[in-house]
Write a structure and sequence with these properties.
The complex is a heterodimer of chains A (about 210) and B (about 180). Chain A is α+β, with helices and mostly antiparallel strands and about 210 residues long. In chain A, helix 1 crosses helix 2, helix 1 runs parallel beside helix 3 and helix 2 crosses helix 3. Chain A starts with a helix and ends with a strand. By secondary structure, chain B is mainly α. Chain B folds into two domains: about 100 residues, Orthogonal Bundle (Rna Polymerase Sigma Factor, Chain: A), CATH 1.10.1740; about 55 residues, Arc Repressor Mutant, subunit A, CATH 1.10.10.10. Chain B is built from nine helices and no strands. In chain B, helix 2 crosses helix 4, helix 2 packs across helix 5 and helix 6 crosses helix 8. Chain B is globular, with a radius of gyration of 19 Å. Classes of the chains: A alpha+beta (about 210), B mainly alpha (about 180). Chains A and B meet through helix 1, helix 3, helix 4 and helix 5 of A and helix 2, helix 3, helix 4, helix 5 and helix 6 of B.
Chain lengths: ~210, ~180
């Protein structure tokens, strides 16, 4: 028996007497046998054989496919009607209610930096609720808001803007927007001066692709 | 295997190349994340985060190098970040941060390598390996499950394990 065949039998844990005889007489195969068994044991690990859920593949591919177009063409300066529900900002907290959430998100969107934050990017995951939409924003490349300013998360659609809340540290934030996502295709994060103006400022820092 | 041409396209953020990377490495990323985190939901989150970060960093990817170690490093880092986040929020009382990772993070590189090798086996051989190792079936039971003669199961098993032993020989020799 050749070394390759004996090692394959060891790897399969299906040792014939011929394979055992080879291992007994071949010092090199014998020296490797313990490691072969250890690597073979990896094959028993269920993690090796589990597959992502049916939504995970499509979610990742949609996220990557959608995010690959140029984010640099974002215009600022648009004017919005602020939805009445903007007054019903329920939660804007770091480390709030969704941490530990085990259910996959209902949707995922990539948000990319605009001219004012070209190195920024992020991903927004959302859970559709009867009372609105829970969202988790995770971003990179954005510094904490400077003094006298804060970030604000918006749902935008058909000229309407609904705030999901304000925050200072944009790395990871969990929010509740009081409207369903389906009517608001655009996600937006603005840098807002603390001036009491309820409409989105012109300083867009992150936005989803339309 | 990812071609050199596809690696160069990945570097530009080409969606088709990103998808090719996902098809090649997505299952391995998920396997590493699942072993490390022990939770399917968190592993799927890690899968998304890994490819998002890889895409964001694609301009820094060297197309002349094997992308596997680069992607593995991102996947492991993402899993560590998620593990630490979950632990912080699961803690009921204030405890000092402990830098040591749980044992589930050990040997994830081997798991990654084994998963990539499995993906490179012919589908009919991979099915036999799955039946024997994951489902714990005998050759006869595997033959019934796969509706093929037992001799076919044995020959496919031998070929598959010989291929795997050959593809993974660097792991065995590195530690022997």
């Amino acid at each position: 028996m050749k070394c390759d065949d004996a090692r394959a039998a060891l790897f399969a844990r299906d040792l014939s007497s011929e394979a055992e005889a080879h291992l007994a007489s071949c010092a090199r195969c014998r020296a490797m046998s313990e490691e072969i068994r250890r690597v073979s044991d990896e094959l028993d690990d269920p993690a090796l054989w589990e597959e992502p859920g049916p939504d995970a593949d499509s979610m990742v591919l949609a996220m990557l496919g959608g995010g690959a177009s140029s984010p640099g063409a974002r215009r600022s300066g648009a004017r919005w009607t602020v939805g009445a529900a903007a007054a019903v900002v329920l939660v804007a907290s770091i480390g709030g209610f969704l941490l530990g959430q085990r259910h996959p998100a209902d949707w995922t969107a990539v948000v990319m930096g605009s001219e004012s934050a070209p190195d920024a990017s992020g991903v927004v995951r959302g859970w559709n609720l009867a009372t609105g939409t829970r969202v988790v924003l995770e971003s990179r490349g954005l510094a904490p808001a400077p003094p006298g300013h804060h970030y604000e998360f918006w749902f935008i659609g058909d000229g309407m803007a609904f705030s999901g809340g304000t925050f200072l540290d944009p790395d990871r934030v969990e929010l509740l927007v009081a409207v369903p996502r389906r009517d608001f295709p655009t996600l937006l994060v603005t840098l807002e001066p603390t001036d009491g103006d309820p409409t989105p400022s012109d300083v867009w820092v992150l936005a989803s692709e339309d | 295997m990812i071609s050199g041409r596809m690696r160069r396209r990945f570097r530009t953020g080409d969606p088709e190349a990103v998808r090719a990377f996902y098809e090649e490495f997505g299952r391995a990323v998920f396997a590493v994340a699942l072993r490390a985190l022990g939770d399917r939901g968190l592993a799927e989150e890690a899968l998304q985060q890994t490819f998002l970060q890889a895409w964001q960093a694609s301009s820094r990817f060297d197309p002349d190098r094997d992308p596997a170690p680069w992607l593995y490093a991102i996947a492991r880092r993402v899993a560590i970040d998620i593990h630490r986040r979950e632990r912080r929020h699961a803690a009921v009382d204030e405890q000092p941060e402990i830098a040591v990772l749980p044992a589930s993070f050990e040997s994830t590189w081997e798991l990654w390598e084994v998963r990539l090798c499995l993906d490179r086996l012919p589908a009919e051989e991979r099915a036999v390996v799955r039946a024997i190792h994951y489902l714990g079936l005998t050759h006869r039971e595997a033959a019934e499950l796969l509706s093929v003669p037992i001799g076919t199961v044995k020959s496919r098993s031998h070929r598959a394990h010989r291929r795997l032993a050959d593809m993974l020989s660097h792991l065995e020799e590195a530690t022997a």
